[in-house]
Specification:
By secondary structure, the chain is an alpha+beta fold. It contains three helices and five strands. The strands form two sheets. The protein has a three-stranded antiparallel sheet with strand order 1-3-2. The protein has a two-stranded antiparallel sheet with strand order 4-5. Helix 2 runs antiparallel to helix 3. The chain starts with 7 loop residues before the first helix and ends with a strand.
């Protein structure tokens, strides 16, 4: 059974900056992080969808990511200019 979109955020409320993404979908502006703490939380959970996420993280179809931080932001008339 597939969980609703973004359901993992309810399971990982103590890690608000971590996302779980499918590895077959390219995502720009993020980096992969260690999934050990997330797996521990999922394995201790009794939620019906926790197993879906833990299996995906273990077999490589899912990955834990965080957004890259932007060091410099230049505001100008309501627009944001990011430097890379």
């Amino acid at each position: 059974m597939t969980p609703p979109k973004g359901y993992y955020r309810e399971l990982l409320s103590m890690y608000p900056n971590i996302r779980i993404a499918f590895t077959h979908t390219p995502i720009i502006g993020c980096r992969v992080v260690d999934n050990g703490p997330v797996l521990k939380v999922l394995e201790e959970s009794s939620d019906e969808y926790a197993e879906f996420y833990s299996k995906g993280l273990r077999n490589g179809s899912l990955v834990t990511i965080v957004e890259n931080s932007v060091d410099r932001v230049y505001p100008n008339n309501g627009e944001l200019y990011f430097t890379t």
